């Protein structure tokens, strides 16, 4: 413990700056963690859009089945909480579907691949502000080749 010699005057502003730092630190940390969660959500959204495009590219070949298209789209989603599964349907927080298989050579009837992912913020306080679950969706459609 540091002893202050007698007759030395201690500035009252030393304690004030410590209190001000403590009051500013909490909101600052909330902003930093919120930016972290926002970055995770943008990353997941980007992966979904890319996976939907990959699935649609697989679907432009007329001989591919809907399960093959879904398997390709699912393989492109590299998120830690998505379990490995094959085909269309729900696996954990990820849903992959091919609502429209498309007709070969018809621009009016393309293959359509849709993905939805339930994003959960890592920080409980952020989850209270924006909600415990946010559903991210991506879709892509391309013309089926002959």
How would you describe this structure to a colleague?
This protein is of the alpha+beta class and 146 residues long. The chain has one domain. It has three helices and four strands. The longest helix is centred in the N-terminal third of the chain and has 47 residues, at 13-59. The protein is rod-shaped, with a radius of gyration of 26 Å.
Map the helices and strands.
Elements: H1 13-59, H2 66-76, E1 89-91, E2 94-100, E3 111-119, H3 124-130, E4 134-142
Antiparallel strand pairs: 1-2, 2-3, 3-4
Distance from N terminus to C terminus (CA atoms, Å) equals 84 Å
Number of helices: 3
Mean pLDDT across all amino acids:
88
Order of adjacent strands in the largest pleated sheet? 1-2-3-4
Main sheet makeup: 4 strands, antiparallel
Weakly predicted, low-confidence segments: none
Number of domains: 1
How do the helices and strands follow one another from N- to C-terminus?
HHEEEHE
Report helical residue fraction: 40-55%
**Strand percentage, roughly?**
15-25%
Radius of gyration: 26 Å
How many E strands?
4
Give the overall shape, derived from the CA principal axes: rod-shaped
Tell me the structural class.
Answer: alpha+beta
């Amino acid at each position: 413990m540091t002893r202050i010699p007698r007759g030395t005057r201690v500035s009252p502003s030393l304690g004030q700056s410590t209190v001000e730092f403590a009051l500013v630190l909490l909101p600052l940390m909330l902003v930093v963690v919120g930016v972290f969660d926002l970055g995770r959500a943008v990353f997941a959204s980007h992966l979904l859009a890319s996976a939907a495009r990959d699935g649609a590219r697989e679907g432009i070949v007329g001989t591919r089945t809907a399960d093959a298209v879904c398997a390709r789209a699912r393989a492109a989603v590299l998120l830690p909480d998505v379990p490995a599964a094959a085909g269309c349907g729900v696996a954990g927080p990820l849903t992959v579907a091919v609502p429209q298989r498309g007709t070969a050579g018809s621009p009016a009837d393309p293959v359509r691949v849709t993905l939805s992912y339930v994003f959960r913020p890592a920080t409980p306080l952020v989850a209270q502000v924006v909600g415990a679950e946010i559903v991210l969706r991506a879709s892509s459609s391309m013309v089926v080749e002959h």
